[in-house]
Amino acid sequence: MKIAVLGIDPQNSFCHPSGSLFVPGADKDMERAAEFIVRNKSKIDYIGLTQDTHHIIDISHPAFWQDKDGKNPDPFTIITAADVKNGTWSPLYQPLKVIKYLEELEAQGEFPHCIWPEHCIKGSEGYAIYTPIMDAISEWARDNHFFQIVSKGEHPLTEHFGAFRANVPIPNEPSTQLNMGFVNVLEKYDVIYFFGEAKSHCVANTLKQAFDHPALAQKLVVLQDCMSNVPGFETLADPIYAEAVKMNIEFANAADITL
Predict the structure, then answer these.
(1) In this predicted model, what pLDDT tens digit does every residue of 212-255 receive, in sequence order?
(2) CB contact set of 163 (below 8 Å; sequence gap of 6+)
(3) Domain 3-55+118-256 maps to which CATH number in 3.40.630.30, 3.40.1190.10, 3.90.550.10, 3.40.50.850?
(4) pTM for this entry
């Protein structure tokens, strides 16, 4: 049996207690995930991680927006297409594309457009993989393995929560389109142990995107003790996890698994 591990955005911005978008509990989640990797390193054939990747000027960051007085929004402000049309908030770049993006995002009916603290800035300390996870993967890699890191989110005009495509893919922008190559890599394995941050957003959206690829989704084992919610969004992704249960996707605790 070929075993894979898929980690979603185990980065300092989310996982280190001093991170700009620290998810409470993420540090302990990653310690459990790291222990799982080390404990089972001789049985793991592949490890893939996603790495959230942003510029300062990003549709989800305060500096992208201003109100009529020129003030940037506070983190965790929700901005709608109606807010842009009525002048409550104005994007400083590509306003017509931004309105179209917000309308398409809202039509999906799942994730509101939230302004986050600047996080996972490419090349920054927050962008780096959280040390306990990196140490565990390094230990595994020294046994003649290579790990894969897949960047996501660098295009500044769309959110990219899930591992496989942006929330609203942009025409003619390959980095936002379905990453079928990554899907194909994962589908080669028999079981995929799945963890990351945040449960309410990037983990949930990755899971939902996997629903479109049943051969992949049915191989997932969700390590539910290795993910936490962004505060205030605890129930946001409940429908996605409920659908996963209906699809008989397995949920387990990493602490209980010895391969």
Answers:
(1) 999 999 999 999 999 999 999 999 999 999 999 999 999 999 99
(2) 6, 8, 50, 150, 152, 179, 182, 202, 206, 209
(3) 3.40.50.850
(4) 0.95
